[in-house]
Structure formats: C-alpha cells, structure tokens
Amino acid sequence: MASRAALRLRAYADKHINSGSFEPLKQVMVTIGCASFVAECFHHDHMAKLQVIAAEKQKNALLDSRNLAAQALKDNRTEIEQTKETIQLSHQIIDQSKQRIAELEKQQVSPS
Asked: What is the model's pTM?
C-alpha cells in the first residue's frame, strides 16, 4: 500500500510532468543548451584563431630579431676585417718610415 505522499507525487507527475505541460520548458532548456554549445564552439574557434595570429606575430618578431643579430654579426666581422687591414697598412707605413729615417740618418752622417 502506497503512502499518501507517494500518491500525491504520482498524481503531480501524471498531471504535470507526464501530461506534456513541461514540454515547452524542456524545449527551452534544450534550446539554451544547444545555443550555449554553439556559442562555446565559436568562442573556442575564435580563441584558437587569435592564438595562431599571436604565435605568427611572435614568430615574425623572433625572425626579425634573428636577422638583425645576424646582420650585426656580419657588420662586426666586416669591421674587424677592415680594422685588420688598417693595422697591417699602418705597420707597413711605420716600417717604411723607419727605413726612410734610417736613410736620412745615413745621409746626415756621411759627408757628401
């Protein structure tokens, strides 16, 4: 034998839930759920695209930095080579000057 509360619950279910009067509420809840799912998918897709764009920007910035560093290194090597040539030329000029001084000293010492 069912209790009075169980009978009331059964009567409520028959009257409201099983009769279809909650059907619009179910439809609204399903619609809200589907709309939320679609919105979340679009949001996720949009965020993924933004992450790809940010990654591309960072990649380009890193490539630019690398290219600038490589160019600076190349310029530095060129400058080092030019400095070596200048030093070598300076040594040649110094040697020639020493020889010229020695010649002039010989001319001064020897009477002509």
From this structure: 0.49
